[in-house]
Predict the 3D structure of the following.
Amino acid sequence: MPIAAPRIFSVAEIYAADKATIAAGTSGAVLMENAGAAVADIMRAHYAPCPVLVLCGPGNNGGDGFVIARLLHEAGWPVRVAALLEKSAYQGDAKIMAEHCPVSLETAADIDLQNTALAVDALFGVGLSKPLSGTAALWLEKISAAGLPVVAVDIPSGVGGDSGTADPLTPQAEHTVTFHAKKPGHVLLPGRDYCGTVHVADIGLALSDTGTPPLWENTPQIWRQAFPATKAGDHKYTRGHAVIFGGAKMTGAAKLAAHAAMRAGAGLATILCPTESFGTYTGYKAHLLVEPAATQKERAAFLSDPRKNTCLAGPGLGLTKDTREIVLSILKNKDKTACLDADALSVFEKDPETLFAALHENCVITPHEGEFLRLFGKLSGDKITRARKAAATCGATVLLKGGDTVIAAPDGRCVVNTNAPPFLATAGSGDVLAGILTGLLAQHMPVFEAAAAAAWLHGAAAARFGSGLVAEDIAESLPPVLQEITKP
């Protein structure tokens, strides 16, 4: 079934749509007028009339700026325009809009900000691929130093449209108005932090199927239909049995993960641990099962029950020979879903190909950037591109963690998670994420959708708790979030 969630489009896809729309009979000038009008409308909705300085770049972004200046001027706002070119030097549609702008242009590098209450950044759009420099850099530096509120056209100047990188002189926008769809730079860090509130305006672009795998911003729309539904006849085994492998020393990690799996809805969760640490695990939570297993043979016998349908290995497991054996034995049974995190990934640093050969489509790996580097090396490209390359390489879903977690499936489907609050920067939060994901897998949720849902639930639960959060609070905050998203 098609997913109705908002798509994210690359810069190339938007440029192609722009060309196709013009080829179909809508002029570039009409699109530019629509873009400028959309920005002006949003400005009027969020600000009272005030003295505005519109910064216009040398291309189409600057053309949008001329439209904004004209419309605000006609609405009675005091408007000034600072442009990088004289009106006569503009080309194409931007030249048309420059000539129709009734406001005289200022081009001096030392711009006067006296009596200016608001700035519009229409310098450079999503296609900028070089550092800010020259007059534009001086203007932006001065605006930032003055603390002026900024409205960005398409994207704040200096943010990479595809990469989300940010130039040191990128202005902090209160509002960003982009067109037709968000671009990767609006959702990836650090660029996302410079955008403020992002408004997506329809300017009449006709986007056809590009044939590329979809990229979405992570919302429940993507995975709600696949989310486990509870039924009156359910019992603990229909809701799945998650097995979490516990280590001998860092025992807190597996405890957090197992508890989170239960909070996410798993019917049972067993911590399978070394015999010597059995007593450490049994005293944590009454609803968690604990099973000692000293050898690979004992572990295999325990997992032979088909009702134990999903496994989590990694949190606190240790960088040992046993960890390698556990991971490879888990992956041999392709009927069981598996989540691999932390030590279960790092233990293959010297021979990642062994892990890749064993992984399959019912697996998800959840590396942070350091673990990702150990497995995949320095892959080129932005975070989305790297996650997609990694998923294609290893044949499993990849959840690349961070404030802008990216989840990529081997077939190229991809989501960027944007709801993670800063409170998640605390020890054990990754263990809880792995546990939530494992709990969803236990309930037979498809792997890609489970990974996307887990990332979103993790962020939503942390945001609900707020400041002072420790890892265990994330799981405790899950029930009201789950109740909200499962409402009929």
About this structure: The CA atoms of residues 461 and 481 lie 6 Å apart.
